[in-house]
């Protein structure tokens, strides 16, 4: 091989090796992206409803609405998370008196800060000084929002309320792309035309992204006098409602300009929690009603989950005399009906029942009506066992005279020692 041929061969080999390395790098990057997307989808799949709170205008009280919306949902018995994606002006930590909260990392997973029944995350928790300015371009903001969605231990939530900054920029767009599907947006405005004109852009933003508009909230709609409670329309009223009608979207309601709301925000106290009896708090309740109705839109999914959960729930009946198992079920004074989770092997509840007068065939039917699917007895005749089986109740006989919770715990653990059936007639 000539020197030129050797040189050409080396060059060709080098080129092939470079191309091969590039391909391996591309494959590795594709795998990382795939795994990252899988992790994100798995995390988002544990959240039933994602609500974006946004406005085309700053200073309309959007974060106040987001925080109190989340608290209202939590007070309604829902599992709620509150995510602040306002990177440049995070307000949620201050509103919930979490300025000094520190984020913990456990097993490589970010733990959200918990307050008033909420799981909360904000860029404000990660700043060394709360006055620090975050000077980031779009890709960096999208990266941290992805981290908040993917790497925070939200767990199973009914609602994740996402507070976005004013406008229709990187943050709400990133949320719509990363947290998809988002159930919809709550649009916040004040009554003045200068505000509603900008807020219309938020509605157009949602329509272009095919993001449902859950409704418009007209904030600061009238001033509530702290002394007499009279409402005065200092900013006029109805601008948000008229805009919603013009844009063909729902109107959720009006929130008055109440000095107590401003004071609660400055003090870090959730308004709807500490001032629940006020007219303003009732206005928040009115606003969340359509959002709570989202739970009814997935009844089939909820029914499937309930069915699976009910399959693991057992109701174990135990005939008692003097608080312990009665050796013959027909002679018992009471029945303990014990709820237990077959999967977790835990007792979840117990109630005492007085049985009807003992007659042949009565108790199996009666316990079936109470929901029992297992009976633990000391002794039981063969005919009675057949009647229980016909009513879908499993029979365990020969159990010792112990307390009902002891018997159930042993039964769940598979350690219940059954002896001789003391009644075999």
Describe what this molecule looks like in 3D:
The protein is α/β, with parallel strands linked by helices and 425 residues long. It has two domains: 39-301, P-loop containing nucleotide triphosphate hydrolases (Rossmann fold), CATH 3.40.50; 312-413, Nucleotidyltransferase, domain 5 (2-Layer Sandwich). 41% of the residues lie in helices and 22% in strands. Strands 1, 2, 5, 6, 7, 8, 9, 10 and 11 form a nine-stranded mixed beta sheet that branches. Strands 12, 13, 14, 15, 16 and 17 form a six-stranded mixed beta sheet that branches. Strand 3 (104-106) and strand 4 (109-111) form a beta hairpin. Helix 2 (62-75) crosses helix 10 (279-292) and helix 6 (193-208) packs parallel to helix 7. The chain is elongated and about 85 Å long. The model is unreliable at 13-25 and 298-310 (pLDDT under 50).
Contiguous low-pLDDT stretches (5 residues minimum) are 13-25, 298-310
Form type: elongated
Mind telling me which CATH architecture of the largest domain this is? 3-Layer(aba) Sandwich
Alpha-beta classification: alpha/beta
Describe the secondary structure blueprint for this structure.
Elements: H1 3-44, E1 47-54, H2 62-75, E2 80-84, H3 92-95, E3 104-106, E4 109-111, E5 113-115, E6 118-122, H4 138-150, E7 157-163, H5 170-178, E8 184-189, H6 193-208, E9 213-224, E10 231-232, H7 239-247, E11 251-257, H8 259-267, H9 271-274, H10 279-292, H11 299-311, E12 313-321, E13 324-325, E14 334-341, E15 346-353, H12 362-369, E16 374-376, H13 382-390, E17 394-396, H14 404-413
Helix pairs in contact: 2-10, 4-5, 6-7
